[in-house]
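User: We ran a pulldown and think these components assemble together. Before we commit to crystallization trials, I'd like a predicted model of the whole complex to look at. Sequences follow.
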Amino acid sequence: MRVELLTVGDELLLGDTINGNAAWMGRRLAERGVEVTRSVVVGDEPDVIVAAVEEALGRADAVLTTGGLGPTYDDVTRDALAKAAGVALVRDPALEARLRERVAKAGRDLQPMALRMADVPEGAALLRNSAGSAPGLRVELGGGVVYALPGVPSEMRTIMDEVVLPELAAGAGPLAVARRTVRTAGLWESVIAARLAEVEAMPGIRLAYLPDPAEVKVRITAAGGAAQERLAEAEGRVRALLGDAVYGTGDESLASVVHRLLGERGATVAVAESLTGGLIGAELTSVPGSSDTFAGGAVTYATSMKHRMLGVDAGLLDEHGAVHPEVARQMAEGVRDRLGAGYGLAVTGVAGPDPQDGRPVGTVYVGLAGPGSERLVTAPRLPVPGTGMEIRAVIRRMTVVHALELLRRVLAGVAPEDVARDAREDREERG
Amino acid sequence: MRVELLTVGDELLLGDTINGNAAWMGRRLAERGVEVTRSVVVGDEPDVIVAAVEEALGRADAVLTTGGLGPTYDDVTRDALAKAAGVALVRDPALEARLRERVAKAGRDLQPMALRMADVPEGAALLRNSAGSAPGLRVELGGGVVYALPGVPSEMRTIMDEVVLPELAAGAGPLAVARRTVRTAGLWESVIAARLAEVEAMPGIRLAYLPDPAEVKVRITAAGGAAQERLAEAEGRVRALLGDAVYGTGDESLASVVHRLLGERGATVAVAESLTGGLIGAELTSVPGSSDTFAGGAVTYATSMKHRMLGVDAGLLDEHGAVHPEVARQMAEGVRDRLGAGYGLAVTGVAGPDPQDGRPVGTVYVGLAGPGSERLVTAPRLPVPGTGMEIRAVIRRMTVVHALELLRRVLAGVAPEDVARDAREDREERG
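Assistant: Here's a predicted model for the assembly, 862 residues in total across the polymer chains.
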């Protein structure tokens, strides 16, 4: 079963919107054993959509479109599908009644253009949209099938999960390909690839490296017979070769692993954030139920707040500025003590775009105060990619990962010396 | 000048990576008057890449590819371009020397497969990559031109800005299309579209609505003669019809507007965050130089921390739980006073996926304490899209926008009654 995706919308070609829908659909389909072989974006022009649908059906069994089903005049996917099928657009009375009812219930007047959402290519099946107004459509076309879904992510996802995926998975047959993603932090892509050369050489096994700021996901694919068994074998080798750098698999985030390790010890963490401005707290609280292990945080972005909120020595701040290893240590101790947490985790550094207190962009110190007398400060040297505002976002994101990774390693029982050594090696690696 | 984008990589089809490169390129090209007419993603297969390049050149003047130029064996764009051009891949000695030098400087051994990056289709021009190892390539092909760029965003962006955009813009001619994006918060897309019907009817003017959680960007496009003048006229009408809901244009973020308004008054804000866990602080500190107007923040995710860190009345928390308007008010006052800021901004609520203290997912209170006796609490009722973990991210993001928007309106001098009324209307709108 080969599937192509067709995303419709000028806003995607103009880059006002990133194509998150295609990524989500690709993942969900792969999980069900359905292969996406091509993904195309076109603008809001009926003729271009018709041509793209026909080309795609020449290569694939099914085409999934998103976008262009809304109420406004730039929503033209319905028109294009009618044209491709050589049928008329007809108003569906039941759909019209449902639209009028929804709007009346909200005490509003129906905008005349909203009735466009009740128009359907003759013969198309309606796919129930329990998350919004416009239903999806299924149109049989020249031996293939087109599923047209709304562009609003929550509506697209709902119709995918409730209708389209069950239908496609029924026709997909048993999985001939098995995939798993192993997540790592703290090692460079090139170092990982060199270490995994022997796994690359295993028959029927392919590796792909998906780098994110300060993280690398290694996707293992096993194709052919006994795919699951060979996948398990390859994963075992990958884990053995990468050791402590592996923190999880699949959708497991670094934050969720940290919460699990804290929970196992009955411990909590409090965070003190300077350059990240709240991102570490946001990452930790992205996990539901995190209030059991996340005590809270202090965002001390301005230098004076490091003294005021956390008790960092004012003389130290005057003499060295805010970007200093001892400041990171005192911030970690301060937040741990003031919030009554088991661990205190702190970051201070320069996110850019300009240097600060004479320190270059990318200078970052991560401080960790443990429940006893344990104190650690690491200085991951972050590469400075690109220029301007992009630096800032990447450095902040890398800092979040390095901080969570330091805490994870300490909780996982890697000796402090090893954490410090890894940080040093990391620095040399970056030259 | 028509340009198509071709992004190469299994990870994009599988949804492990979102196609941010295509969005960035589309934006940059549109700014220079170059129209992207189609954007295609294919996997790491040479034959498929060859076919996609040839199809694209049949429709467009230039094709920009990203991905597949790295050192590993799944990087096959070089091979595909050589095949499409009917030439051999030849090793470039200068490029090889540069690779060896880079690696030696970092004190590492050259991985044999890294030498693949020195292979070039015969006759291709090298595009300098000042941000990494693999250069871009320019290949003339059947009357058109292919620019091949690395998939690493910082490297792709550098080569685009330094080489490709200047070359393409030189051939693009004067801008026949003018575009502007007006940014709004707090109004629904359907309400905005209904209000702007008369602008839609202006000749040569097109509107597009780009909804984000709790924000809508309205993109105005003017095509044909005197595009700039007509764009200005349309923007004036849009602003008049949307009034206070417009907070900025183009890339201007809500956070940057809040900082500007605070700066004009010489005021600062401190934030107290519950369900957002640090996202409001992160958003405010995404703007460089924000330490002048952002005092700091307290992340009081656990209920007990609202009392401990902010002095919220313990009896109130015991009786009503953390999700209550009076809790939001006391959090705002508490953080303002403890951090010595002019304004205190606070949020408490239920991000999901499960209800909390008997309150449904999406219940949110935003508290604002002004420098004098001003106190405001709003209760934006947030629609609950989709299910499970997605809810959580969307509700948190909407809460950030509603909080910043409340502060913006107060700073911009909209009377408190109006803010409260807008919040009520907003609620009715959502039925």
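The first strand of chain A starts at residue 2 and ends at 8. That may be worth checking against your pulldown data before setting up trials.

User: Thanks, that helps.
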